[in-house]
Amino acid sequence: MALGAREDLGDARFVGIETLSDSGSTPDACVRRALTRGFDFVSVSVAIDEFATSVDPSTYPAKPLTHGDRALSGSEWSTRVVLRCSPEVERLAGAGDARGTRALNRELKWAAHVGAHAVAMNINAGDPTLIGRLLGSHVASVGETTRVWARTRMSGDKAFDDDAYRRWAATSAACDENSNVRAYLHITGAPKERREWERWLGERVAACALSVDSFVPNARGFPVLPKELQALVRAMFERGIQVVLTDYNESGVAAKKITPESVENEGERVSGDAAHSFRLYWEYLVYIFRGIEPLSEQALAEVPYRDHLQAPLQPLMDNLESVTYETFERDASKYIQYEEAVRCALLDVVDEDQEGTVMVVGAGRGPLVRASLRAAERARRKIIVYALEKNPNAIVTLQHLLVEEGWQEAVHIIPGDMRTAKLDAKADVLVSELLGSFGDNELSPECLDGAQRFLKPTGVSIPRSYESFIAPIVSAKLHDAVVACKDKKALETPYVVQFHKTFSIGGPKSVWKFEHPNHDGCIDNERYARVSWSHSEIGDISTTLHGFAAYFDSTLYNGPAGHVRCSIHPASHTMGPTGEPMFSWFPMYFPIRSPILIDSRSASSIEFVIWRRVDVHKMWYEWAVTAPSRGHVHNLNGQSYWIGL
Amino acid sequence: MALGAREDLGDARFVGIETLSDSGSTPDACVRRALTRGFDFVSVSVAIDEFATSVDPSTYPAKPLTHGDRALSGSEWSTRVVLRCSPEVERLAGAGDARGTRALNRELKWAAHVGAHAVAMNINAGDPTLIGRLLGSHVASVGETTRVWARTRMSGDKAFDDDAYRRWAATSAACDENSNVRAYLHITGAPKERREWERWLGERVAACALSVDSFVPNARGFPVLPKELQALVRAMFERGIQVVLTDYNESGVAAKKITPESVENEGERVSGDAAHSFRLYWEYLVYIFRGIEPLSEQALAEVPYRDHLQAPLQPLMDNLESVTYETFERDASKYIQYEEAVRCALLDVVDEDQEGTVMVVGAGRGPLVRASLRAAERARRKIIVYALEKNPNAIVTLQHLLVEEGWQEAVHIIPGDMRTAKLDAKADVLVSELLGSFGDNELSPECLDGAQRFLKPTGVSIPRSYESFIAPIVSAKLHDAVVACKDKKALETPYVVQFHKTFSIGGPKSVWKFEHPNHDGCIDNERYARVSWSHSEIGDISTTLHGFAAYFDSTLYNGPAGHVRCSIHPASHTMGPTGEPMFSWFPMYFPIRSPILIDSRSASSIEFVIWRRVDVHKMWYEWAVTAPSRGHVHNLNGQSYWIGL
């Protein structure tokens, strides 16, 4: 029975159980028992008698070492059962013992054979490289049917938990970050600082085993989670990560359950059925799950884009499609900012008795034309608008708008590229919406340099300036997605992404800024920047660097009449009239070829270098990590990715 | 409003309308009108005034050449509207005129810009290579957003329609069989012979325009389709192909509608609304659609496998998974045949007072053990069963079955490979289920040659023999699927496929046969065969050869007690007890690198050569087409595909 009806939280609505009292039962008996108690799946031991599996697995034992497969259907195995390896076999295999390794392989192969939902192996002992090799070798040989859950731990002890995180990172590195080997986080206590657990949100976490140990009794004696673990479980649910309730800690030691005196726990007393005594815990999870804020309509629409890599647009080489314009036009918050910026600019630059000239360069299907006309009305300025557009399909729409909106007098359509179009008029205000998620990445500098010849000496550009920002992140999912492209170029391409399973190792730092109009004698739009995050900025925790998040913050206009911004920087994100964030831009993700462990014990800092390069045909970025260790330069000479001019 | 609620027929439940009376209306007006009349989408002209589009498209005309895009949302454009190119522009472009080509490109680009469901272009005039290049160039530049429907025709005149088919094949060939360029079959009359239209079932057909011309009045004066077109429409619906009702023929000439006197067609008379007068035609399509037999449970389960390429198993190199055994065991019809074969064999080979020995080689999870025990009971023979199995996971299940089914006395489990296992017992009956879809393709010959040392001199093998068959087919969808793999190896690999959008150019012909036990002094399992289909066998129609279908027909047992077969040959397919066909095997598909036009005018025959080759490590097939023209040998030396021994 699911925790709730919400489907946007994915598999998080299904809860599993892992209890000592299941020992010795067949998987089908455990499944039936769990289902009647409200749970959706069980975690059970693969072996009937765990020591039996440590016999020499190269011979055929007389008795079967595991329960039969036919009592459950294939679909039940794949949705209802997680198989656990035997502790003694895990210990021997983790120590490199050959017989233990063969026995572990037999257990893993059995789990794959029946098609279990996952097979769980403890990685808290033994050599992470040996274990990572074993798990990687297994998942590579069985394909994508059965995932491996690598059981790691979180106890609330900072040093202990940091060690567990590094063991996980080492295991994952040994199997080359195989996306079918995921962490199974066994939680027995709450960390003191949020960042200690938040880093896991960027890792490949399959599920959390929540020990009854981690609960505390509330005033009425009912089991509840400490505040920090409530936040953790909520954050996991929001990322579709399942919870398994368990009555022992990760060393296999039984934990005592909390039973309020007011509750007659007849079930357990009478039947000895431990699953029943989990009821209060399960109900508490239902309470947490159902308490999660429903998503706004806009956030729901964005669910498919979470952690989904989008190749950046080629705005000059390709013409936008109608549906892309439609999507952009839907973001009221952005055009409210533009309207306000044009209004302030008109007040400052155009006299009341003059006729102002506004030039919209890249008019598309007209949203900035509309915003400019509205701004003029509010500013009580008479204006004439020139709408420059290079896309012949968008011009059809502009032509229709002229008639439909009665714009014939006020608006002139000029077909052509703003860098080369011929036009005698000069503008008081040059309005454009050429910004990309990283500010300059859609060639706004090059286009506006070309268009500024249309400006009067007193004229202004909207936007007036934009600044680019970079932040280091943990994001195994994005790294996996890039690797899955099986193309070296994919590892050297920045993507537009709605971040979801991501953790910020350090806050965004500015790399460079562009201003318009640019009156430099010789305009140079190449850039170079070096930014770093010190050990104290990172905090005293180990993390895995998977790449960098990128943002922009723009000043649309700044003058006596007002200062109008437009930003997707997390600290200054532009909000819309209904309190929803502006959604026209997702951030960008700059991947790195191999994840890098940022080890808290060596007090490492992170340093990042980035270049913006331009030649006659194209613009591209190059980037490199130079600390904690010096890596190669990504996308050298634009070999993998560039934007055509 | 869909024709019915069935979703297994895909988009076929949505019907479009294309009517002369829509000329001059805006697309949104046409959509609104069509929706109120029961239709789901409209086919409308892209241009406001078709001659206006033939002006020089390198300049910007003062007035827009097409209706605006904003009156329909992106999702309405993509589901409700098919745009038609202008006839005059099509004519000029098809003749190679430069201005016409530019104008056509502008129309195609507009359709892609708005994201229309499709853009339709007539290919019945002009040079197919010029048109194919234009369409291929267009779809390659706009990506997968908007498909091209190439309008071709079917009038019922054999020579005329064969020419249309060849024009389609040439257009498709010119754009390198681009899967986003599909046929739009404009039907004005019924072919005399079924094969004239059935060949289209193997082509990339997006939709059929069904002209009211193609209907005839029934006794009550209502429009109905002639019998052959009823079958055609039903077959199209079954393949998810949509119908568009139209009131003109493919040359643009208006067709007269059938109006029974009993129906007061007030709508049309009063409002002049032609859509309304389509009502009786639409209702007739509802009748046809709803009359299609619902799929059986088994057929429904197979829907996802239709035209879906499955890589063949590697039965010796890989161990089967539990769920694969589970699927196989579900096919009662197969084990009924096996049980009957063992029963007959026991009657013929084992005396009543003897204890017979049955050896199941490759026992898996025990279905043949069970069938053998049942057969013995029915034959009143006492038997002992040896169950040989190499998969250690399957042995676990066999061990449990021994206890659960009380088989301890009668069944001995022997772990190991049948080719090398050590065992002193000798069998009266050697039972195996090693057949693949092509008979020998899962190495049954090599395995049984190895296992026959367990047979008594009087012993028999079940199966006793199996024969392999090959048939030439039209199947653009399968060819597309192979090409989509973007790997040369994919074009040289045979696949397991449930054929759906396929047309048999000629019936299956035998290529070779294997018999067991094989008492040849030196066993040679290599084979070579050459088969051909003459022009008269193909019939006097042009077709496109996309590869070959492959089947097996096996004699499980043949003796005094009976002859038991097991076959997936279309003419002798084994049926189950409930009248459903046996479903354990789908046929195979041998692709060819490039489709070949079989031109009826040159009275071509088809000749196919195939080799079965074996070395110490592997078995593979090589194949080539040698008529109508000699092609290369596919999979030479097993370079792309082989089965490991």
TrEMBL record, chains A, B:
<feature type="active site" description="Proton donor/acceptor">
    <location>
        <position position="433"/>
    </location>
</feature>
<dbReference type="InterPro" id="IPR029063">
    <property type="entry name" value="SAM-dependent_MTases_sf"/>
</dbReference>
<feature type="domain" description="PRMT5 oligomerisation">
    <location>
        <begin position="465"/>
        <end position="643"/>
    </location>
</feature>
<keyword id="KW-0808">Transferase</keyword>
<feature type="binding site">
    <location>
        <position position="389"/>
    </location>
    <ligand>
        <name>S-adenosyl-L-methionine</name>
    </ligand>
</feature>
<keyword id="KW-0949">S-adenosyl-L-methionine</keyword>
<feature type="domain" description="PRMT5 arginine-N-methyltransferase">
    <location>
        <begin position="298"/>
        <end position="462"/>
    </location>
</feature>
<feature type="binding site">
    <location>
        <begin position="334"/>
        <end position="335"/>
    </location>
    <ligand>
        <name>S-adenosyl-L-methionine</name>
    </ligand>
</feature>
<feature type="binding site">
    <location>
        <begin position="417"/>
        <end position="418"/>
    </location>
    <ligand>
        <name>S-adenosyl-L-methionine</name>
    </ligand>
</feature>
<feature type="domain" description="PRMT5 TIM barrel">
    <location>
        <begin position="38"/>
        <end position="289"/>
    </location>
</feature>
<comment type="similarity">
    <text>Belongs to the class I-like SAM-binding methyltransferase superfamily.</text>
</comment>
<dbReference type="GO" id="GO:0005634">
    <property type="term" value="C:nucleus"/>
</dbReference>
<dbReference type="InterPro" id="IPR035075">
    <property type="entry name" value="PRMT5"/>
</dbReference>
<dbReference type="GO" id="GO:0032259">
    <property type="term" value="P:methylation"/>
</dbReference>
<feature type="active site" description="Proton donor/acceptor">
    <location>
        <position position="442"/>
    </location>
</feature>
<dbReference type="GO" id="GO:0005829">
    <property type="term" value="C:cytosol"/>
</dbReference>
<dbReference type="GO" id="GO:0016274">
    <property type="term" value="F:protein-arginine N-methyltransferase activity"/>
</dbReference>
<dbReference type="Pfam" id="PF17286">
    <property type="entry name" value="PRMT5_C"/>
</dbReference>
<keyword id="KW-0489">Methyltransferase</keyword>
<dbReference type="InterPro" id="IPR035248">
    <property type="entry name" value="PRMT5_C"/>
</dbReference>
<feature type="site" description="Critical for specifying symmetric addition of methyl groups">
    <location>
        <position position="328"/>
    </location>
</feature>
<protein>
    <recommendedName>
        <fullName>Protein arginine N-methyltransferase</fullName>
    </recommendedName>
</protein>
<dbReference type="Pfam" id="PF17285">
    <property type="entry name" value="PRMT5_TIM"/>
</dbReference>
<dbReference type="Pfam" id="PF05185">
    <property type="entry name" value="PRMT5"/>
</dbReference>
<dbReference type="InterPro" id="IPR007857">
    <property type="entry name" value="Arg_MeTrfase_PRMT5"/>
</dbReference>
<dbReference type="InterPro" id="IPR025799">
    <property type="entry name" value="Arg_MeTrfase"/>
</dbReference>
<feature type="binding site">
    <location>
        <position position="325"/>
    </location>
    <ligand>
        <name>S-adenosyl-L-methionine</name>
    </ligand>
</feature>
<dbReference type="InterPro" id="IPR035247">
    <property type="entry name" value="PRMT5_TIM"/>
</dbReference>
<dbReference type="GO" id="GO:0006355">
    <property type="term" value="P:regulation of DNA-templated transcription"/>
</dbReference>
